[in-house]
Design goal:
mainly alpha, 2 domains, two-stranded antiparallel ribbon, 6 helices, elongated
């Protein structure tokens, strides 16, 4: 397991799914019956979930999906949150009323084949395209 610790702690090496899968297979061949998965292997699996889905990682590494999902959630909770830079300020730019006429077309197609097209010219007035979109997506359920 020493090679796993070195692999995880090395900032220059990005472990691949195939490499970690090989480490899991090696561990499985050498382990004592019913021994728990070593923490470095769990950390490597959680690290893979930053770029791949939990399902893909759990399936490839032959891990329990819910156990991996819980560990990924724990890692997210433990990770330091980025504090906003107090030197940055938000500036709201008011664009006012458009000079010319504006046009917007939104087309959507649901997995069930239903289609919707919305075309707006000028201001939206009382129409809310987000509400209309929500109704469209819910109708296919």
């Amino acid at each position: 397991m020493k090679e796993i610790r070195n692999l995880i702690s090395s900032p220059n090496v990005k472990p691949t799914l195939e490499l970690i899968r090989n480490q899991f297979e090696t561990w499985r061949k050498r382990r004592r019956r019913r021994s728990p998965i070593p923490e470095p292997l769990w950390q490597a699996a959680v690290g893979l979930c930053r770029e791949r889905s939990i399902y893909e990682v759990s399936r490839t590494l032959r891990l329990n999906y819910n156990d991996l999902k819980d560990r990924v959630a724990e890692a997210r909770d433990r990770s330091p949150t980025v504090k906003p830079n107090p030197d940055l300020t938000f500036i709201k730019v008011g664009l006012g009323t458009p000079i010319g006429s504006s046009e917007c077309i939104v087309e959507m197609e649901a997995p069930n084949g239903a289609r919707m097209r919305m075309s707006f010219k000028g201001s939206l007035g009382e129409c809310d395209p987000i509400d209309l979109s929500g109704v469209f997506w819910r109708q296919g359920r």
